Amino acid sequence: MKRLLLSVLVIITISQYFWREWSQQPEVVTEYDPVAQADYTIEALSRRQFDENGHLHTQLDAEQLEHYQDLQFTYFQQPKYILYSSAQQQHWLIQANESVIYDNRNLELEGDVQVIASHPDEWFNTLYVEQLNMDLQAQTISTSSAVNAVADKLKFSGQGLRGNLQTQEFELINHVRAEYLVKN
C-alpha cells in the first residue's frame, strides 16, 4: 500500500512539473530592426517647389510622410501632387490613397488614383486607376491596371495606359472602349 501511494505521488508530481512546463507560453523576443524604422516622419506635409525662374513647378500635400534613408524611398499617405506647366496655365492634380517615391524621381501611386486636369475640356477631365507609375521629371505616366476616364463628351476605358502630361498625349494599351456622349 505504501508503494502504491508513493508511486501515485511520484506520478502526480512529475505530471504537475511537465504540465507547468508545457502550459507556459514561450517568450517571444522581438528584435529591433533599425532599417524597418522610418528615419523621420512628417504630419500634414505641404511642400512647394519652384523652377529657376521663380515659377511654381510642383506642389505636394500629404497627411503623412515617412522617409527611409537606408531603403532609399519615401512613403506618403493621402498624397496630392499638383504639377504645373512651364506657362503656368495648365496643371494636373494627381491624388491617391498612398504613394512611394524612389530616387526623387520615380513615383508609384496606389489606391483610388485620380489624374485630374485643371482645365477640363471635351476630350479629357479625370482619369481613374488603382495603380499608377510616374516619372516626375519627364511627367510621364504608365500603368497595367484597368483605366477609366471621363470628359465632357467622352467616356473611355481600357487595360493599361501610357501618357505624357506635358504633351497631353495618352495611349490606352488593351481592351479599349469609348463612348461619345451627345449632349443637348
TrEMBL record:
UniProt subcellular location: Cell inner membrane
InterPro entries: LipoPS_assembly_LptC-rel, LPS_export_LptC, LptC
Keywords noted in UniProt: Cell inner membrane, Cell membrane, Membrane, Transmembrane, Transmembrane helix
Gene3D superfamilies on file: Lipopolysaccharide (LPS) transport protein A like domain
Membrane topology: Single-pass membrane protein
PANTHER family per UniProt: LIPOPOLYSACCHARIDE EXPORT SYSTEM PROTEIN LPTC (PTHR37481:SF1)
Family label: Belongs to the LptC family.
Subunit record text: Component of the lipopolysaccharide transport and assembly complex. Interacts with LptA and the LptBFG transporter complex.
Function according to Swiss-Prot or TrEMBL: Involved in the assembly of lipopolysaccharide (LPS). Required for the translocation of LPS from the inner membrane to the outer membrane. Facilitates the transfer of LPS from the inner membrane to the periplasmic protein LptA. Could be a docking site for LptA.
Protein name, UniProt field: Lipopolysaccharide export system protein LptC
